[in-house]
Hints:
The chain is elongated and about 105 Å long. It has four helices and no strands. The termini are far apart. It has a domain at 1-48. By secondary structure, the chain is mainly alpha-helical. The chain has helices at residues 2-33, 39-45, 52-55, 82-85. Keywords: Membrane, Transmembrane, Transmembrane helix. InterPro entries: DUF4750. The chain crosses the membrane at residues 6-30. Residues 49-86 are annotated as: Disordered.
Amino acid sequence: MWQSLGLTVVVIVATLLCVLLFMLFGWYVVWQLFLSKFKFLRELVGDTSPQQADAELPRSGAERPPTPRHRAKAPRQRIVSPQDAS
């Protein structure tokens, strides 16, 4: 009787331990591959170590301005017809 009860407790504790270890390992992998790239999440966790993107800043005194992804559009001008002008 006591053996089967002890074995049941051991199985339940071992199962919970395996699930916890699996969750911690999964969180670590997801953190390393994806979540650590976001500065906001690093600040929430308190990680102050510089990331690879932060370390690749230009080392020269003159920094390059950020390049725009899209061409800047000229402001729109309203075309006034001769009838509206008078």
